[in-house]
């Protein structure tokens, strides 16, 4: 399959926990990566592989996976976490790169 | 520190060919996969294709017949060529490094992006 499905929008109260999900058949084979994108900026990798964070990414960001669904969890959301979040992986064949449609996170 | 920088025209006429270059510093392009990704205004990320360190390329089927990618190891650059540009190709174009590991692949470094507008 060549699709990853995300909810278009999610909101969270400041300091609370939010989960953003991504569903697709390719996630049965590959772990999802997660990118944060703020307006006018390039995407930034926040989670990759089996819940790994690049240097500089706060530990309030974590990833998990079950079956065909991956999740990005932000524990104690901050105002600066308001952004678009994209999941990504290779497709089931491993030959193509695919992205989810993105989730707009609003921090209330 | 790893850096990628896109360069090319900001304005392309309809039916013309777009050529973009991504200059890589801080690492050699003789490893990994080198991707082009674009984002139309207000839309999500769309994968265009990649070229591997060995020169093997793979493109998004929706663009396959119009896209060509190449490597220039002497300049540590890789390039994108898209023919028959239309207004629908107006987007910010990003280059990114993709790293394989035991459980998948991930794009860890991205260029800042370059806006390409298709207009007469």
- Give the integer mean of the pLDDT values of chain A: 96
Strand content bin of chain B:
over 45%
Along the chain, the helix and strand elements of chain A come as EEEEEEEEEE
Number of strands of chain A: 10
**Count of β-strands of chain B:** 11
**Pairing-aware structural class of the strands and helices of chain B?**
mainly beta
Helix content of chain A: under 10%
Residue stretches of chain B low in confidence (pLDDT < 50, at least 5 long) are: none
Low-confidence stretches of chain A: none
- Helical stretch tally of chain A: 0
Distance between the termini of chain B: 39 Å
**Helix content range of chain B:** under 10%
- Helices and strands of chain B, in N-to-C order? EEEEEEEEEEE
Radius of gyration of chain B: 14 Å
**Radius of gyration of chain A, whole Å:** 13 Å
The profile of the biggest β sheet of chain B is:
7 strands, mixed
Largest interface: A-B, 24 and 23 residues
Q: How is the topology of this model organized?
A:
The complex is a heterodimer of chains A (108) and B (120).
Chain A: E1 5-6, E2 9-12, E3 18-23, E4 33-37, E5 44-47, E6 61-66, E7 69-74, E8 83-90, E9 97-99, E10 103-107
Parallel strand pairs in A: 2-10
Antiparallel strand pairs in A: 1-3, 3-7, 4-5, 4-8, 6-7, 8-9, 8-10
Chain B: E1 3-7, E2 11-12, E3 18-25, E4 33-39, E5 45-52, E6 57-59, E7 67-72, E8 77-82, E9 91-101, E10 104-110, E11 114-118
Parallel strand pairs in B: 2-11
Antiparallel strand pairs in B: 1-3, 3-8, 4-5, 4-9, 5-6, 7-8, 9-10, 9-11
């Amino acid at each position: 399959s060549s699709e990853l499905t995300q909810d278009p929008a999610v909101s969270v109260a400041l300091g609370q926990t939010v989960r953003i999900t991504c569903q697709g058949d390719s996630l049965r084979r590959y772990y999802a990566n997660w990118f944060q994108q703020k307006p006018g900026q390039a995407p930034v990798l926040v989670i990759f592989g089996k819940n790994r964070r690049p240097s500089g990414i706060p530990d309030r960001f974590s990833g998990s996976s079950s079956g065909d669904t991956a999740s990005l969890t932000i524990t104690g959301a901050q105002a600066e976490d308001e952004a678009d979040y994209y999941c990504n992986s290779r497709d089931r064949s491993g030959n193509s790169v695919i992205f989810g449609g993105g989730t707009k996170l609003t921090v209330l | 520190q790893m850096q990628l920088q896109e360069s090319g025209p900001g304005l392309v006429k309809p039916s013309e060919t777009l050529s973009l270059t991504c200059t890589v510093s801080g690492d050699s392009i003789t490893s990994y996969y080198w991707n082009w990704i674009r984002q139309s205004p207000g839309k999500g990320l769309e994968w265009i294709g990649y070229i591997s360190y060995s020169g093997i390329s793979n493109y998004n089927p929706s663009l396959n017949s119009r896209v060509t990618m190449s490597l220039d190891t002497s300049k540590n650059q890789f390039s994108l060529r898209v023919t028959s540009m239309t207004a629908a190709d107006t987007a910010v174009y990003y280059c990114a490094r993709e790293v394989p590991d035991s459980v998948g692949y991930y794009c860890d470094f991205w260029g800042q992006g370059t806006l390409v507008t298709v207009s007469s």
